[in-house]
Amino acid sequence: MVADYNQPMQSLWNNADAGRCDNELALRAYGSRLLGGDPSLVLHGGGNTSIKLDENGETVLYVKGTGSNLATVDERAFTPLRVDGVSTLLALPELDNARMMRELDACLKRRPAPRPSIETLLHAGLPYRCVEHTHADAVLAAMNVENMTAVHAEVYGERAPLVPYHHSGHALARACMQVFDTQRTGNTIGLILAFHGVVAFGDSVHASYENMIELVTRAEHYLQARGAWRIPRIPEAEASPIAPDPAVLENVVDAIRATASAPLVLHIDGSPQSLAFTRRADLADITRHGPATPQHAVYTRRVPMIGRKVTTVRDYAARYRHYLDTHLGQRASALMDAAPRIVLDADFGVCAFGASARDAHIAAEMFAHDIAIMTRASAHGHYCSAPPGAIAQAEFEYGGFAAKLARNNE
To answer: How far apart are CA 137 and CA 115, in angstroms?
Structure first.
């Protein structure tokens, strides 16, 4: 589904459809598909939902497994885990994510099962039967500003306390529980995760889903009230009657592929929205801060390249290598290439690169969401992103085809 960035979201809950679900896990899958079907909430395996069920006196957490598409999930996409075992892991003061995933495997109620979500501990710790987690564009657009704390207080307050940024997994789950335990009130229905997204919860699938809708709608209303909702598109009168020839990109594409030391596929997004963004007077400034959430950098890199000169590729790669060395150390940095994944050009729009046609398309789509978020955030404040070190960590742990190839060949 293509996102209509100028349309606010609405509750899609249908009692007749819900009534056709013959068990609670099927109902959980139904509510999940409603969220997953809206690309302004989740992208490419992102977002996760859960439900806690009593099975023969034992509480079992069913959380959407890693990598499954929230828009199409059914009961088989949920991983069953013993809540007691997962809660023991959450109680540990420190736990790296690699060990966490090994320990979660030991908490499985039965096999075979999908690989548990990296956010499993967060779902287990919240004392509600149902939890939803999305990366809602509207929430990020409202919150990703320098005065985030003040905006949060105005939009959410006790309704959804603010959790400072932490890397996904054990650290984020612990931070969420600390904020929840100290700041929740009887009016609390969720949590806002800085530079990450939003969590909603409730004691039924319907309640939890509607709470997510409310939290996203609050952000939409805030943006609309400040004239920060509409996403500019290039007027037809300014559009070239003849599409630019991709052949003029040949030299820069070759330079990027050489820098990556691996084949890359190009995908061009020349939509009116992308063209308008690439022609912004403040393009270099607004894009230097990083993506809306570190997870986007897995496909888009922390910053795009601007322009299509071959010399720009070399300059970009040198700066990006310095960034990776600084925040990851040279040993980890060496496993990653420093080639850009997004090139912004006023004639072509967004030129996205990936290890496959699918990856290139995902990179373009993710940057389209970043365009919407950056545009809205900068219309009501000064856009900002997570710290560079946090983004580098996400790039290394979650993605980087070069890093994956190197690890597979060890």
So the answer is: 26
pLDDT digits (tens, 9 = 90+) for 258-284: 999 889 999 999 999 999 999 999 999
CA dihedral angle for residue 357, residue 305, residue 168, residue 182, rounded to 10 degrees: -140
Residues in the chain: 410
| Structural tokens at position 313 | 């590729």
pTM above 0.70, yes or no: yes
pLDDT tens figures, 76-123: 999 999 999 999 999 999 999 999 999 999 999 999 999 999 999 999
DSSP 266-316: EEEE--HHHHHHHT-TTHHHHHTT--SSGGGHHHH-SS-EES--HHHHHHH
Structure tokens at 235: 């007027």
288-330: pLDDT as tens digits: 999 999 999 999 999 999 999 999 999 999 999 999 999 999 9
Per the CB < 8 A criterion, the answer to whether 330 and 396 are in contact is no
Cα–Cα distance, 91 to 83 (Å, whole number) = 12
- CATH label, 236-408, candidates 3.40.630, 3.30.70, 1.10.12, 3.40.225: 3.40.225
Alpha-carbon distance of 143 to 386, in angstroms, equals 11
In the chain, what is the straight-line distance between the N-terminal and C-terminal CA atoms, in Å? Answer: 38
Does 15-225 carry CATH code 3.90.230.10? no
